[in-house]
Model the fold of this input.
Amino acid sequence: MTAGDIEHLMQDPSIVRNLLKIKATITNAQAFLKIVDECGSFSNYYWQHTNGVPIVNHFKTLAEVPAVTDLATIISKDMKKRGFKFFGPTICYAYMQATGMVNDHLDNCPSK
Done:
């Protein structure tokens, strides 16, 4: 992306217009592509942390569901070493939940 592209994004009211976050998005995309080159796919990199097996937790109340875990911290630190920005352990854990790496549905949830 060029400086002009970034300036255009800074004027776009439909996105978060924070220069650091826009630049981080570009940096993260470049780091993502390096992982793909190294590991064959981002999925290969990502799922190696659980040997391809989702983590199914058995929580009874929402209060038990963590915002961060040790694994999220490990993945986040590794991704930061690889150049990712704005990807701390809390965001990482939310991503793990969203992608199905972690199933935090409560035990009484019909979706479990």
Observations:
- The first strand starts at residue 55 and ends at 56.
